[in-house]
Amino acid sequence: VTRRLKHWGWGYEDEQPSVADLRALAALISERLGFAVGEPEEPVPLSEVAVPTPRLRPPDGLSEICSTDTYERCLHAYGRGYRDIVRAFHGRFDHVPDVVARPRTEPEVEAVLQWAVAAGAAVIPFGGGTSVVGGVEPRVGEQYAGAVTIDLKALDQVLEIDRTSLAARIQAGATGPGLEAQLADHGLTLRHFPQSFQFSTLGGWIATRAGGHFATLYTHIDDLVESVRALTPSGPWESRRLPGSGAGVSPDRMLLGSEGILGVITEAWVRVRPRPTRRASAAVLFDDFLAGASAVRALSQTGLHPSNCRLIDPVETQFTGTGDGRHAVLVLGFESADQDVEPAMSAALDVCTEHGGRFERRRGAAAGDGGSDVVGSWREAFLQAPYLRDSLIALGVLSETFETATTWDRFEAFHASVSERVSAAIDDVCGTGRLSCRFTHVYPDGPAPYFTILAPSRRGEELGQWDRIKRAASDAVIDGGGTITHHHAVGRDHRPWYDRQRPEQFARALAGAKAAVDPRGALNPGVLVDAVRGG
Ligand SMILES: Cc1cc2nc3c(=O)[nH]c(=O)nc-3n(C[C@H](O)[C@H](O)[C@H](O)COP(=O)(O)OP(=O)(O)OC[C@H]3O[C@@H](n4cnc5c(N)ncnc54)[C@H](O)[C@@H]3O)c2cc1C
Q: E strand or H helix at 26, and its extent?
């Protein structure tokens, strides 16, 4: 039996909790959040969704890999941001692609691309569709003859392994579990585990500069990419495999973060590593978030490079079950395939102690790695979060995250002003709610704070409420000197703030590069640069 993905949320259709399950969950959620949640609602079934007649028809030669079926068009209409899920849950599909192509080979990608561009369509490269920034929604304007979404997931193979250099050539549509299973056969791993790992793809990670497992050192997929191959409307773009290079502007760096506007990434060589066999983890308590932050700053500047270094504020510990809401918790981890990790862990814990941290290490505890139950709870909450969000939406809870990065010298003032402005917006728009913060990644010169908003929404007004809070958050981040995104990408939703952040001459250079390889302006119009429809 083939399982179908939900057309509106996270996971498979058979994973949706029943109304009775949601009612049971409601009490627990209300208790943890401190405000009442609504009666569970059910998603509008696909049979009640009307989509416009497709404006394009694929040529006969491509009909086998193209679909105009309502399920496929709805499944590919949105990413998986709060705004996407709320709309799809309520059966509202503002923009659906006219045609969804699922090419199985690179020549098929090329054929679909050439047909769609010639037909005057907008072309949306699509990996797992887990974008949270409007990156795959065909919100492209009326100047296009239609929209064709190219879903890469049938290109899912590890094609080659170079054991000597520890690198692998992998197709862009491979999902996290798919590529890890193939690498595991060789005792290797990419170890790039974004929270969306289950469904997101290598091509999507590269196109969005995704942030993964490592909290320090190799924070983004960028650090694991050796070379990239993409098809542009003007021809292929493939870089040499090199461990490093000083030859001008990097062709890989241009594709990293290109969010589908320059070409369809079809494969990449990535750096892999032997699977870790030694791990150590610990949970350290601090009196408050800022005390924890000073320990993390010191730690980030030691050169110890913990693989996990997630500082969670007291509010968030309560919701994730990692604490009682009175302390900040630092989840710390080290791992290695061949080295003893205990010396590094001991040195890191010494730094924490010097900054007022308290911990208890129980060897062989729940996590099986010398860590504590807190570490296990954190991991479980992390894995369940995407599923929980669907339930929160069914219960009328507004659930949004935003992430950024700033330097240590500005961090305290930044954290204070963002927290104050966003909390005020939550109170103003929703009456009550909660804002929490954790660090997902840390650098010697600054952290990447990740904020979570949970607030009661008013049914039917969710999108307007989201819009006002999102604006307040984005304005606060940019006014405070942060980046509009550390790893969630720009898409269509972050454009106004991305435009404020980037240098104007760079914006012109990027638009020029796009015009050179995509002269008709077909690829993902409106993302990163304005849509310019060429002849
Ligand atoms: C619950 C949840 C948790 C998340 N956690 C993380 C996290 O921990 N770290 C993180 O970085 N992000 C996270 N994200 C965001 C998202 O998963 C990432 O942006 C991810 O990299 C998107 O991959 P995808 O394959 O789903 O791409 P899609 O969503 O399909 O596409 C994203 C963008 O990339 C482009 N694109 C996709 N594939 C290609 C290709 N082959 N060639 C050219 N362009 C392409 C699309 O056009 C679009 O602009 C999360 C999202 C959700 C919903």
A: helix 19-33
